[in-house]
Amino acid sequence: MIKKASVTVHPSYKIGVVDKRLFGAFLEPIGNWVYGGIYNPHHPTADDMGFRRDILDAVREFDLPALRFPGGNWVSGWDWKGSIGPLEQRRAQLDLAWFQIEPNIIGHNEYLEWTRRAGTEPMYTINLGTEGIKSAAQLVEYSVHPGGTCWSELRRKHGHPDPWPIKTWYLGNEMDGHWQIGSWEKDPVGFGIRTHEISKVIKWIDNKAETVFAGTSDHHKHFPEWEMAALEQCYESVDYVSLHHYHSVPEGDIANLLNISSVFEDYIRTTIAICDYIQTKIRTPKKMYISFDEYGAHFGRQVEVPFGRRGWHDVSKSYFQFAPRENVFKNPLDWLNGEEAGNTARFHNHQMLTALAMSSVLLTFLRHADRIKIACMTGGLRNAIAFDSKHVWKNATYYPFYQLNRLARGGMSILPVVDGPTFNTEQFALSGSNQCHAYENVQAIEAAAVHHEEKGEAVVFLINRSVEHDIAVELDVRGFEGYRLVEHLEMYTDDLTKGNSHDQPDAIIPRPNAGTRMDGGKVTALTKKLSWNVIRLAKS
């Protein structure tokens, strides 16, 4: 007997306006993301600066709204001043985050020029690991002050007469993490004070600037205490709290992979509670917003899990054991000749499942559109807009990412009510940080909806997360009086080992579902197991 679910969507269930930056991406010089990726002067499509036009064209086609860069862990050891000016005067340095040699061929101005050519908004991460207030102030002055000062005139001398259009500054990256160079793990109050002082300076240079506090990265042992202690010191001077989470689950555990939204919901709700508590405590009318500026999902391998302080595996906490790594530094310039960097294969495996997991995250963000205003998919480049040393193509993740970017931005997010089949997940602990408790009664149908009232358009996004069952969905849209069904697009595959590539670009793509009907304000649609679905309505 076929499984059934009901989804109710009403224009009165308003959450918040969807900021276009929810569909941003992230760039960091890991492997050949930069050298051999976006930059390769030997590539047939290279432009006058060595940027690959095939990748630029793909980013412009997607209409990427925003890009956070240049890191990532990498930025905490980077000297931005060593990356400006004539190439022959730039300083190569060791990258202690990813054990590479950073040649600084692509430096501060080149990153910003790439965003200009790609037509995307730059969101800049400042090094607060090995640099401090003075360096941050000089960086901002160099970047956005019109002229007449030492640093702004130096930018002009370097061939950039106009200020760069940077409005969003990230104040450090994962600074609570023990893996971070210059970590503030043991001094959250000190980091909060440092963040406050740097945010003040930035806004004194540019009073229209936005700043982002580097909140707790993933669910580590000091969450949420570290966050509360640090954020209280800078609450009134910053605009966003940064969140990061990478959801790694046991190989083949599809239920846990696609329950990613429950994990993100817990993280988001806790962070919102922290922000609202501090707002109440310091008696300010200011509301804090969220930038979920790194996220991903993949299958992981079991490694040794450090025991908790009670002698057992506590999956709500993580524990750190320090050990030096092997000192082998790779030279990214080797990748300009076509050599692929390591650890990039994960961006091309399990494409349909990765697409569903990333879509689930994006639907979670839509359901919190009142508080989450920025999000940057770590795999937005290399996973969705996919490329290797030679080619560019669209992985499966591209399509829901693209559809959400085009159909949701600027609309009013609406909270759907879902009732249908459920599934359970099991607790796991892959490592000290990749851990998760069990969940029960998770809805197999996940939904989000957006209403563009002024256009007379509404869109409902559905994921069937069931591993075994197609599910017949009855979508109640009677609140949208006078609307008709435009189309139902679905994306699924009967072979989860399949994936898109340059040679086979259409292995997994959205296709129309001609069997979907609308009658009496209700849409009936059969959703395939492990499928992505977009149902569009328009006013007659």
Count of individual beta strands: 28
First CA to last CA: what distance? 36 Å
Based on the coordinates given, report the CATH architecture of one domain: Alpha-Beta Barrel
| Main sheet characteristics | 8 strands, parallel, barrel
CATH class of one domain: Alpha Beta
What class, by secondary structure content? alpha/beta
> In percent terms, what proportion of residues is strand?
25-35%
Model regions low in confidence, pLDDT < 50 over at least 5 residues: 342-347
Mean pLDDT rating = 94
Which word captures the global form?
Answer: globular
CATH superfamily label of one domain: Glycosidases
Radius of gyration over C-alpha positions, nearest whole angstrom: 23 Å
Helix content: 10-25%
Q: What is the CATH topology assignment of one domain?
A: TIM Barrel
Instruction: Output the number of helix runs.
Output: 10
Strands side by side in the biggest sheet: 3-4-7-8-9-10-11-12
Catalytic activity: Hydrolysis of terminal non-reducing alpha-L-arabinofuranoside residues in alpha-L-arabinosides
Family: Belongs to the glycosyl hydrolase 51 family.
Pathway: Glycan metabolism
Subunit structure: Homohexamer; trimer of dimers.
